[in-house]
Amino acid sequence: MEKARHVFEAKEEYFIQNGAMLLEKQITCNQGRDTEPIKIFSAKEIQQATNNYDPNLILGSDIATIYKGILDEREVAIKVKGPPIHCSTETMVDFFLQQVTIKQLISHKNVVRHYEFIPNGTLSDQLHGQRNKITCQISWLDRVRIATETSYALCYMHYGRLRPIVHLDVKSKNIFLDEFLTAKLSNFGFAVSIAPGEDFFQGSSVPLGEDFFHGSSVRGTYGYVDPEYQATLQVTEKCDVYSFGVVLVEVLSSHRNVLKA
To answer: Start and end of every Protein kinase domain (predicted)?
Structure first.
């Protein structure tokens, strides 16, 4: 009985701690205005939803391992902290909460909703293949449409809000395709919002993952990062425009933007 009480108290402490951090981010991004509630699931609920983290349900992995699962009686994509990387637990928590907070601010048909399951994987999967699977032959018409839909999402983020949102990690791996091959921009862990009246956000961060910049304050992925941002650390909408340009070349050529040794 005593052990059960301690377990309950520990869970309650984590709920309060994470909820407080999330609320702080929401208030900052919303400039103190009311925020919509976000449901927090327990570790046990996530474990059940992923069938005890069944490897057969893994959709992909990077900074996080993404599982297909069932929550609230619907198919969802569930992100779980992936293999150890060169950053603290606090940084990882902040990275995940940032995604939740920023996504809550964006309501657009070409942006992935919270937990939304996207059946056709990413644009990168379709262009370059994944796990030895045969790639989908995307027509030129679909390629142009996917690029256009991605630009719509970025345009909304940059100019459709009081506080512009800069994604900072636009790449083919972060553009998901639904059953109709509709583009859905995702993964907002590096995203920042620029205060009204300001021209830029002076950025700094702890980079994450093997494809990301180590030992620097640059957010983003090798091969997609705007060189001007890399030099100044000043975040503007142009950072996303440069990265989107790299994606366009990738879409038109079907070649990866960088070659790994």
So the answer is: 1-261
